[in-house]
Amino acid sequence: MIDRTRLLLPLIGAFAALLLLASCASTTLESTWSDPTYTGGPFKKFFVVGLSAPDTTARRNFEDIMAAKLQAAGVQAVPGYQFIDAGSKADEPSFQAAVLRSGADGLIMSRLLGVDTQTNVSTMMVPGPGLGMGVGIGRGWYGAYSGWYAVPQVTQYQIARVETSVFDVKTERLVWSATSETFNPTTVRQEAPGLADTVIKALQARGLIAGK
Questions:
Q1: Which domain covers residue 88, as residue numbers?
Q2: What are phi and psi of 123, to 5 degrees?
Q3: pTM exceeds cut of 0.85
Q4: CA–CA dist 51, 142 (Å, integer)
Q5: pLDDT band for position 133 (50/70/90)?
Q6: Which one, of 203, 164, 158, lies nearest residue 185 by Cα?
């Protein structure tokens, strides 16, 4: 006798994997803060800094993508590596001089806080030997009533957490910050556009970026 439940398990597993892939690499803001006393209006030009990137190339990619997304949103932006060597950490005077030399009035800085691996255990109901699903014909109404079994599904996924902060260059004052989460991150080049879009939308809502 064919064990139809065993035959169906690969199909169920493939379906679960498809659902997981469909939700990959989505970025959301988990928490935001803004200075309620800030009245400086929208920024005209941003100096973009990416921190905690795994290598110099990744940091340059992030800064390029964020700057390009800001420009597409209607505000000027420059990647920080054009004024500060991305392969080294500048001291405070050098950093301040670089920001001022860029002509930016706003500083946007993103820092990777960490990547966590999490495990999810759920239960999926699958048809038993008495039900068809393309393998056989169900045994009447009682088969539909009784022929289902609980199968545990264990999935692992990663969450990357990034903190993004915006400073007023003139006063060096923090005016906005947010923590974002990206589900199952891949590479900086692939995930940076989604992060940038999410952050820019929030900055527009707060009035820190003027509309086109």
A1: 4-16+35-118+155-206
A2: -120, 130
A3: no
A4: 61
A5: very low
A6: 158
